[in-house]
Amino acid sequence: MDKEIPAQTLKVEILTREAFEPFGDVLETRDTPLVINQGRCQKYSDLTSVTTDDQGYTTMHIYKTAPINHTYQLDLLERHPLGSQTFMPLAGQRFLVVVAPGSSDGATPDWSAIRCFLTNGKQGVTYHPGVWHHPLLSVDGGEEYLVIDRKGPGDNCDEVLMSAPYIVEVP
């Protein structure tokens, strides 16, 4: 008989550029915009860059996902070793961003360093290539996201089931 492993509660942190830096970029309007189009538009440029290996190319999608409610048990992490991946909410919805660095063996997440961030509804994220993350976790209505990632040959999605249950309390 397998011994049941008790679930750990994962603390939810507010998403900031500094806290998320080891995992990728936070996309949000910040600093002073460049005024363009005869003064009719403000441009917040260079918020992130899209990375792909030399065999792939950049593509865009719209993802629709159901929001989660109350307490949610995380089940897996995934990573994309051949390119970055960007998620930007299209309806101002908040979402949870669960990430972990790689372990010393490079093939699995470092479970002891898993983190969870809450966006403010105006922020998106870009995961650096190879960053372990949970699939989308929308916490508000408006479940559509613009997604920018790599397409091309090669295996660009590794998935690992969580070794122990983690619970997040939806704020």
Write the topology of this structure.
Layout: E1 8-9, E2 12-14, H1 17-20, E3 24-27, E4 34-36, E5 41-43, E6 57-64, E7 71-79, E8 85-89, E9 95-100, E10 115-118, E11 124-127, E12 132-133, E13 137-138, E14 144-151, E15 158-169
Parallel strand pairs: 1-15, 2-10
Antiparallel strand pairs: 3-11, 4-5, 6-14, 7-15, 8-11, 8-14, 9-10, 9-12, 9-13
Question: Would you mind describing this structure in some detail?
Answer:
The protein is mainly β. 2% of the residues lie in helices and 44% in strands. The protein contains one helix and 15 strands; from the N terminus they run ββαβββββββββββββ. The chain has one helix spanning 17-20; strands spanning 8-9, 12-14, 24-27, 34-36, 41-43, 57-64, 71-79, 85-89, 95-100, 115-118, 124-127, 132-133, 137-138, 144-151, 158-169. The strands form four sheets. Strands 2, 9, 10, 12 and 13 form a five-stranded mixed β-sheet that branches. A five-stranded antiparallel β-sheet has the order 3-11-8-14-6, with no helix packed on it. β4 and β5 (41-43) form a beta hairpin. The relative contact order is 0.33. The model has no long low-confidence stretch (mean pLDDT 92).
